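Anyone up for a design puzzle?
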């Protein structure tokens, strides 16, 4: 098995187009790393450089103890699953699984053994004689994954493999992939813009923006301890409430509510306050830390309602916040909320970096 490592990886197309900027990370055997970020953040370019489809401007790609930075794709022993499946339309499932192994001149008995193993894992036994045009989207995706698995590569790369599937099928195939990954010992790199895929499938998530690595961490830490304002706002659905608040003494002012600031070397004139909608709780008592607002929008999400409310603000326009509440009719009602201090996130106005270290 092989460890994948990227060292100071850069890619420059033109002086103004630099999709990857000084990326360093590693993926251990058996780990699943998701590259997560908005369109244009550099995640697919990184994947293409790992695969050898793009040459880095600077930096290294190492697989195990081999520097493969400038090796051809065929010399890297990697397997890649594309967004478009890339199956041979004129070959049936068995022939699609067999094609790559025949090119590598793997012995026939070894080919059949590998195909049997992968077919069992992916539930393809009843589909072996069908051609891609006779398969559903989910079945085609499983064949594409199977074609990668039979190669027994040092590294598996997946480029948004579920983006062409409808929501329900995506959920089923995502569960299948999670089980498949758990049986693999090689590093897996998974590119996605869908945070649900990244959070559920990965052992590590690399959040990218504008070519820079914003945070590399376990999924639960990405969610609970975002390194900066971008990560906090990008990861989480519904999105975290993020507000720039004035500071007075040791408090930040949110309407009439005073929120105690964390211990800081100096108190800034303004600070970015963040709290996730699920951490805004209905208040049972009224005090200086109680937040009051009037509901103006209710969105039914099934188990919860996403409730938007306006907080009066003496400094200007009302402040809008969102909270997840049990499904009741809240429209035009005055509500009071409390915010647990441990669930508040504080960020620097200029840099966006988190101001609170969480264990």
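Challenge accepted. My sequence:
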């Amino acid at each position: 098995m092989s460890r994948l490592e990227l060292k100071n990886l850069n890619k420059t197309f033109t002086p103004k187009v630099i999709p990857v900027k000084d990326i360093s990370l590693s993926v251990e055997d058996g780990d699943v790393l998701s590259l997560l970020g908005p369109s244009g953040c550099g995640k697919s370019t990184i994947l293409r450089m790992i695969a050898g489809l793009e040459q880095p401007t600077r930096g290294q790609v190492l697989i195990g103890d081999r520097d493969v930075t400038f090796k051809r794709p065929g010399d890297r022993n990697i397997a890649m699953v594309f967004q478009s499946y890339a199956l041979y339309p004129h070959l049936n499932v068995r022939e699609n699984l067999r094609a790559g192994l025949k090119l590598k001149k793997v012995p026939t008995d070894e080919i059949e053994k590998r195909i049997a193993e992968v077919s069992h894992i992916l539930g393809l036994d009843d589909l072996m004689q069908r051609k891609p045009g006779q398969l559903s989207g989910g079945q085609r995706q499983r064949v594409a994954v199977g074609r990668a698995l039979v190669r027994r590569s040092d590294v598996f790369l997946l480029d948004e493999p579920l983006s062409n599937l409808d929501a329900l099928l995506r959920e089923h195939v995502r569960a299948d992939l999670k089980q498949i990954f758990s049986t693999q010992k090689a590093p897996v790199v998974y590119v996605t813009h869908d945070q649900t895929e990244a959070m559920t499938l990965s052992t590590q998530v690399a959040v990218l923006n504008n070519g820079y690595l914003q945070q590399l961490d376990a999924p639960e830490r990405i969610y609970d301890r975002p390194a900066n304002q971008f990560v906090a706002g990008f990861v989480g659905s519904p999105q975290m409430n993020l507000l720039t608040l004035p500071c007075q003494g040791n408090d930040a002012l949110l309407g009439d509510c005073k929120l105690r600031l964390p211990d800081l070397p100096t108190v800034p004139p303004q600070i970015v306050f963040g709290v996730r909608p699920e951490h805004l709780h209905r208040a049972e008592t009224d005090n200086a830390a109680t937040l009051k607002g009037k509901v103006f929008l209710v969105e039914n999400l099934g188990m919860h309602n996403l409730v938007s409310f306006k907080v009066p603000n003496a400094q200007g326009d009302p402040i809008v916040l969102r909270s997840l509440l049990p499904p009741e009719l809240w429209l035009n009602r005055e509500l009071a909320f409390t915010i647990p201090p441990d669930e508040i996130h504080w960020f620097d106005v200029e840099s966006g970096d988190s101001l609170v270290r969480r264990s």
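A detail worth pointing out: Residues 167-183 form the longest helix (17 residues).
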